[in-house]
Amino acid sequence: DFAVPIVLLKILPGHLKIAALYYLLIKFLSAVLIPRVASVIDSKERISVARLGLGLQFLGVLLSAISIYILHSFAGTNPTFEDETFLGIFTFMVFSGLLGTLGSSLMDISIANDVAPSLFSGHDLVQFNSRFRQVDLITEVGSPVIAGILLAFSTLSLPLTGFLIIVLWNLISFIPELLILHSVFNERADLKFKLLSSSNDIKKSFLQKLLDGWKSFLKQSVSPVIIEFTIPINDSDELIV
């Protein structure tokens, strides 16, 4: 997530909008698709969810690396979305990044909201969640620093040496992660399988969920107050926040 936009700026200096659009599209599309992807947690066995989440991440990182190196070969041209070649590479890059983001989100939700509550209870669950968030925050702060240092490495024969190290680091890291999860499932065989459930909410489309959410909001007694405080005053452009 951190390295790809930085590498885009390195490959296409002066084209900040392209890197910003890449990041914006991934975050927007993931927000739309994560509820649908996360629904597999309730419809598949835990071991299958773990394999799917790690598989999506692995594929996302691998395809993102390929798209970056393809784009690097076109770095001498002035990129525009009117160029079909560049548009195709950019679309492939967004698709690759989206796969990795969806896989990462699926694993976070699965571990924190499904596996952990099945392993722990009471004070142990609180302690686990606390440690889980601590590790998450440490990686969010530390990973960009380490990635930034690695991105500074380059050679004449391989200008994106640092990026290649980050790619290999990510790909290799999925192996011990999968092995650790398998060890947990093997130690607690009852976690491998669970009673599968499929609610009507899972089958609903994103638009239907959005409409249901608004209907639920409008039924609340506080909704008129919230709506009133978000409409323009005296036809001006100012809004009450």
In terms of DSSP E residues, the strand content is: under 5%
SSE-based structural type: mainly alpha
Q: What's the pLDDT, averaged over the residues?
A: 81
**Amount of helix:** over 70%
What gyration radius follows from the Cα positions, in whole Å? 22 Å
Q: What gap, in angstroms, lies between the N and C termini?
A: 32 Å
Largest sheet entry: none
- Poorly predicted residue ranges: 235-241
Please describe the topology of this protein.
Blueprint: H1 3-11, H2 16-38, H3 46-72, H4 84-119, H5 123-151, H6 161-187, H7 200-203, H8 206-218, H9 223-228
Helix pairs in contact: 1-2, 1-3, 2-4, 3-4, 3-6, 4-5, 5-6
Brief account:
This protein is mainly α. Helix content is 72%, strand content 0%.
Explain the overall architecture:
This protein is mainly alpha-helical. It is 72% helix and 0% strand. The protein has helices at residues 3-11, 16-38, 46-72, 84-119, 123-151, 161-187, 200-203, 206-218, 223-228. The chain is globular.
Salient structural properties:
single chain; mainly alpha; 241 residues
